[in-house]
């Protein structure tokens, strides 16, 4: 049996709509760890992570609040190894660990819910997101792969929030 890793799309909506938690109706899209398209999206997002972190580290060493990270958090579930979920209000500690608040209600992390603090290592990062001043979201490599797996209305709504290119033009 293949383990499936749930990847959540919810933060894409929650980041821009800010009308309260959308977690109750958030879809969970499962991908096999062997899914080539999702693996490539994660690899591409991670290949830009150093650059993104360098651009969004503040003068005092903090991380800009427009940055969110998608982290692979281990779970204890019979057919799921990890839940990959968006984390907002991200901080980087001196020991190199990231902490932040869950941007969605998790599906497979009992005892945790939207807004709870989690901690993770750099190698657990699967994606990144930057919310621009015009309301467009950059990054979201995994979200872009999930669009065809959503309902048409969900895909259109989320797609409208994504920037045409994952990297801001000013960064190229």
- Percentage of residues in DSSP E strands: 25-35%
Averaging pLDDT over every residue, what do you get? 85
Based on Cα principal axes, name the global outline: globular
List the strand order in the largest sheet: 6-5-4-3-7-8
InterPro entries: DUF2314
Keywords: Signal
Protein name: DUF2314 domain-containing protein
Which tags fit this structure?
172 residues, alpha+beta, six-stranded antiparallel β-sheet, two-stranded antiparallel ribbon, 5 helices, 8 strands, 25% helix, globular, signal, DUF2314
Structure in words:
By secondary structure, the chain is an alpha+beta fold. The protein has one domain (5-167). Helix content is 25%, strand content 30%. It is built from five helices and eight strands, in the order E-H-E-H-H-E-E-E-E-E-E-H-H. It has helices at residues 10-17, 36-47, 49-55, 141-146, 152-161, and strands at 5-8, 28-31, 67-77, 80-92, 98-102, 117-120, 125-131, 137-139. The longest helix has 12 residues, at 36-47. The radius of gyration is 15 Å and the shape is globular. The termini are far apart.
SSE layout and pairings?
Elements: E1 5-8, H1 10-17, E2 28-31, H2 36-47, H3 49-55, E3 67-77, E4 80-92, E5 98-102, E6 117-120, E7 125-131, E8 137-139, H4 141-146, H5 152-161
Antiparallel strand pairs: 1-2, 3-4, 3-7, 4-5, 5-6, 7-8
């Amino acid at each position: 049996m293949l383990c499936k890793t749930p990847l959540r799309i919810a933060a894409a909506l929650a980041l821009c709509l800010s009308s309260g938690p959308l977690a109750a109706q958030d879809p969970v899209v499962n991908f096999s760890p062997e899914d080539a398209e999702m693996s490539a999206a994660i690899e591409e997002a991670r290949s830009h992570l150093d650059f993104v972190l360098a651009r969004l580290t503040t003068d005092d060493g903090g991380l800009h609040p427009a940055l969110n990270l998608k982290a692979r958090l281990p779970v204890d579930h019979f057919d799921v190894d990890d839940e990959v979920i968006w984390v907002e209000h991200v901080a980087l500690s001196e020991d190199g660990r990231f902490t932040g608040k869950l941007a969605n209600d998790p599906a497979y992390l009992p005892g945790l819910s939207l807004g709870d603090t989690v901690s993770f290592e750099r190698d657990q990062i699967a994606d990144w997101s930057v919310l621009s001043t015009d309301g467009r979201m950059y990054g979201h490599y995994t979200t872009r792969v999930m669009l065809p797996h959503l309902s048409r209305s969900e895909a259109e709504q989320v797609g409208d929030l994504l920037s045409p290119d994952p990297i801001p033009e000013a960064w190229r």
